[in-house]
Specification:
Helix content is about 75%, strand content about 0%. The radius of gyration is 19 Å and the shape is elongated. With about 150 residues, the chain is mostly helical. The chain has helices spanning about 1-20, 20-35, 40-55, 55-70, 75-85, 90-105, 110-115, 135-150.
Length: about 150
């Protein structure tokens, strides 16, 4: 019985969070978590809502990281922690979290997409030349096509 109530609270929190009401969503995630303390999703989303609503970065990070330690193969947990880092202005930590997530989740495309959204770029092919040089641009295009051909995430 309490599990179905927890799921209902969690879904209500997700709806509120998606609609921009992170403060209201926090109470729903907290209630879901009280009913089911072993669910890493409740913990992670509570952390995300806390970061979005109250900017309590350290506490939000701890909640999301604890959830991630509970279940390392869940893509959403990496995305939530990375979003907390992004909101806190810690872009390098967000990139590191998503990159680590790619290793544990069999290169899930949602993580690769989040990395691209953060503006993650590969380094120039020839690091001693400017990124905008003709040679770097052409070699970069060639590398892109080659990686696309062999099936690596681009």
């Amino acid at each position: 019985m309490s599990e179905s109530v927890a799921v209902k609270e969690f879904r209500e929190g997700l709806t509120l969070l998606a609609n921009g009401y992170a403060g209201k969503a926090m109470s729903h995630f907290a209630r879901a978590r009280q009913l089911d303390r072993n669910n890493p999703f409740y913990l992670s989303y509570q952390g995300l809502a806390l970061a979005a609503a109250e900017q309590k970065w350290d506490e939000a990070e701890e909640l999301c990281y604890t959830a991630l330690r509970m279940h390392r193969t869940q893509v959403e947990l990496y995305l939530n922690l990375a979003e907390v880092y992004r909101l806190a202005g810690k872009k390098p930590d967000a990139v590191e979290t998503l990159t680590t997530g790619l290793q544990f989740t069999k290169r899930d495309p949602r993580l690769a997409q989040a990395l691209r959204k953060l503006g993650m770029r590969r380094p120039p092919v020839l690091g001693f030349l400017d990124r905008q040089s003709f040679l770097n641009k052409e070699l970069g295009r060639l590398r892109h096509r080659l990686l696309k051909t062999v099936g690596r995430d681009v």
